[in-house]
Amino acid sequence: MKALRIATFNINGIRSRLPALLAWLEREKPDVVCLQELKAPDQQFPGEALEAAGYGCLHLGQPAWNGVAILARDSEPLEVRRGLPGMEDDTQSRYLEAAVQGVLVGCLYLPNGNPQPGPKFDYKLRWFECLIEHARQLQGSGHPTVLAGDFNVVPTDLDIYDPKSWRKDALLQPESRDCFERLLANGWIDAIRHLHPQQQVFTFWDYFRNHWARNAGLRIDHLLLNRDLAPYLKRAGVDAWVRNEPKASDHAPTWIELGSRRSRKSA
């Protein structure tokens, strides 16, 4: 495995934000990108433009809603799985898995769950339970693995500017947080929190009530590393400048940098 920069980015509509996506790819040059909320069917995915920018693509689209994709710089992602095990009846495009540059990459868009309580929250929790079980299988696979995406969970109160007005939101519910904790308990490392244990790091700023200008953000985009990949983690952060661009997504790309297998052996 060579040194890699892996990012996750909820693009919130890939067709309308393609220029911004291409500008970010050109400036930051991530090696692997997990995209969520494509909001486009597969036939409208801008594969030619991304390939011209140097990225091989896998995508699982859906008209108007959801959709996930994995991009690989100067290479082609090798598809492993479409859809989350245990959710075979799910009609929503939320999970894609591929082998890229020696790493197994799971790209996910976990259900929002609002309003709660209700069927949307029940769907969120069912999806989360299936993810926990699949992640348990991945943990024991022996392959270096990252689960990256919009988890639609604020893990702790440190991960939000002010929890008071969000207490009834599905992102902060005790059940949602418990699922995230149980996922980590299987041995997964939350990369941002691991390297920045006391720092408020945000990945999402709502369009309403001037959240971006006030830096009133939430951390809901996560990169989780299994035991086989965690030793290579070097850096992690957020390209917040993207959120300040014209016609920006309400999310900013979140990324990790991994050292090479050779540098790990010599460490």
From TrEMBL:
Cofactor: Mg(2+); Mn(2+)
CDD domains cross-referenced by the UniProt entry: ExoIII-like_AP-endo (cd09086)
Entries under InterPro entries matching the protein: AP_endonuc_1 (IPR004808), AP_endonuclease_F1_BS (IPR020847), Endo/exonu/phosph_ase_sf (IPR036691), Endo/exonuclease/phosphatase (IPR005135), ExoIII-like (IPR037493)
Binding site for Mg(2+): 10, 37, 150, 152, 250-251
Positions bearing the site annotation: Transition state stabilizer: 152
Family annotation (Pfam families): Exo_endo_phos
Source organism superkingdom: Bacteria
Residues annotated as site: Important for catalytic activity: 221
Cofactor binding, note field: Probably binds two magnesium or manganese ions per subunit.
Statement: the UniProt record of this protein carries the keyword Magnesium: yes
Active site (record annotation): 109, 150 (proton donor/acceptor), 251 (proton acceptor)
Residue stretches making up the Endonuclease/exonuclease/phosphatase domain: 7-251
GO BP annotations, alphabetical order: DNA repair
PROSITE patterns named in the record: AP_NUCLEASE_F1_1, AP_NUCLEASE_F1_4
Site (Interaction with DNA substrate) location in chain: 251
Keyword Metal-binding: yes
GO molecular function: DNA binding; double-stranded DNA 3'-5' DNA exonuclease activity; endonuclease activity; metal ion binding
Keywords: Hydrolase, Magnesium, Manganese, Metal-binding
Family: Belongs to the DNA repair enzymes AP/ExoA family.
Name under which the protein is recorded: Exodeoxyribonuclease III
Organism expressing this protein natively: Pseudomonas parafulva
